[in-house]
Amino acid sequence: MRSMSRIQEEIAAVAARFIVDDGLEFGPAKHQALKTLGLGGRVSLPPNEIIEDAVFEHLSLYGNETQTQELQALRALALIWMKRMQAFRPHLTGAVWRGFATAKSDIYLQLFCDDSKSAEIELINQGLDYQVSAVKGFRGEVVDALSLNIKHPQWGVYVGLHLMVYDFDDLRGALKPDAKGKIQRGDALALQRMLDASAPQ
After folding, report:
1. pLDDT tens digits along 134-144
2. What is the C-alpha to C-alpha distance for residues 126 and 169, in angstroms, rounded to an integer?
């Protein structure tokens, strides 16, 4: 009989494949892994830290130069939109920030607004179509997500862009490292440094 830790390792490995190959987010990838492995809903799911480790392990085994190029292209596109939405203190998060994004990954920007409706008004003023949904925020609270499909200038295909709307006060403490010393989000300046550091010499 497999131990709980062994089962969690298997879930993490399969979830990592869905994240890299299909662009799924952590939550859906975990549940898809459960189905794939034929496990019931009572199984304890591995924490996101374990999933992320499995994702980077998967990339080290099966990733290639294409993934690096795709990541850079998505970061460049994210920077364009961060500048476009700069009035709302955008911070990049998710796979594009953490470094395991592929061409199938969406871009996630967290906006810290003085007025929660101001970001929506800006999208309307720019003539952009978007969908509004309620999602769990990084502190567990429910926040609005404004989702758009944006055309990638390099690829000619559409990429999902999700703008999560937070109050300005939520920015306090948001840049503290997590338990593993990693920063979960970064502003345009931090992203530009990443792009500069990985640019061909």
Report:
1. 998 888 889 99
2. 26
